[in-house]
Structure formats: structure tokens, C-alpha cells
Amino acid sequence: MTNNIGMRFENWAANSENYQKMLAKKPVEQFNFIEHTDFSKTAPENKAKVYTEAVQNIAASRISNYDANKNQKMEFDEYVTEQSNIYKKTFNESLNLNIPGMTEALLGIFNNCDLNKDGAIDNQEMSAVFTYMDKADNSEGLIDGKISYDSAIGTNWAHPDMPGVLQMLKDFLFPPKN
User: Fewer CB atoms inside 10 Å of the end CB: C or N, the chain?
Assistant: First the structure.
């Protein structure tokens, strides 16, 4: 695995110092996935394109880091590997998948993100996930390419209509072609 944007996101999310700051209600620098672009200075007519390209890049990068079968999608076993790796980096111990309910909890989150229910999370679905994290931490609901640590770690995956919310964001990013 290379240190691409997906891995930089993982290293930021799996940083135990960041996690401790979040628990202590101290600020943690946001993760900006629109790197080297001052999104606030992007011309209004170009914002959607710049944002969509940036969110696609981080989604593709995130998937490729764990795409063992190289199909450009993240299956459940690959998702478990991703989550286990993040847990190990954060807490310096292995994620115990034998804890009652652990696999079911991970499967529930995975299924919320697998919008077309094909057993894998593709680039558009992962893009919607990152857009949700971006939007979730902003009180005005603005999308700015920055994810707060609290949103990345504490995103409410138990939202009663998470698949509907993610589908709405996917449609926003990738409008159906007529």
C-alpha cells in the first residue's frame, strides 16, 4: 500500500492522539481531501466538478488500499480488513471479531453503504460516504471538502435512513443521465 490520499486519511483517522483529543473535546485539524485546491476560491460554475473529482479520488484511493481481488470495489471481507487495520493502528490491539455482535455491527454499516446491494461498495457509493462525512459535521450543511475528526470517527451510521441519505448524495454527485 502506498501513502496515497486514502492512506493519509486512514493514518489521520487511526491516529490515537487525534482520538484522545476528540475524547477530551479538544480540536483536531480537519482532513482536507480537496488537496492543493482552495475550494473557497473555485469559480461557482466549477465547484461541483472540482468537488466530485476530489471525492472520487479519495474514494478510489480508499477502495484500492484494500481491494485484494482488484475489482475496484470493496467487499465485506475487505471492509473488515480495513476496519481491523484502523482499529489496530488506533488502539495498538487487534479488533476482536469474536465479540458477540461485532461482525453484525460491521455488516450493518457495510450494508448501509452498499446502496445497490450487490455485496460491494463501489466508487460512487464510497464517494457518497465521504460526502456524508463532509456534510455531517457542518452545521450549515455545506460541502467544503473538509472532514472533522468527530464526523469521521463518530458519523452516525445508525441514521434511520442511511441508505436513503447516501443515495441522495450519490445522485447529487453523479446525476442520472437521461
Answer: C
Distance CA(150)–CA(55), nearest Å, equals 19
Q: What is the DSSP string of 10-49?
A: HHHHT-HHHHHHHHTT---PPEESSTT--GGGS-HHHHHH
91 or 141: whose pLDDT is higher?
Answer: 91
User: In angstroms, rounded to a whole number, what is the distance separating the alpha carbons of residues 99 and 91?
Assistant: 16
Say what the pLDDT of residue 155 is. 64
The answer to whether the predicted template modeling score (pTM) of the entire model surpasses 0.90 is no
**Structural domains counted in the chain:** 1
Going by C-beta distance under 8 Å and a sequence separation of 6 or more, which residues neighbour residue 159?
165
Q: Structural domain of residue 83, as residue ranges? A: 5-173
Is the pLDDT score of 12 beyond 70? yes
Task: Provide long-range contacts, Cβ within 8 A and 24+ apart, for 34-38.
Answer: 34/145, 34/146, 35/5, 37/145
Answer yes or no: is 10 within a domain: yes
From the number of C-beta atoms within 10 Å of its C-beta (0-12, 13-18, 19+), residue 160 rates as exposed
Domain contains 113: yes
Whether residue 178 is contained in a domain is answered as no
- Residues 37-58 pLDDT 10s: 777 788 888 888 888 999 999 9
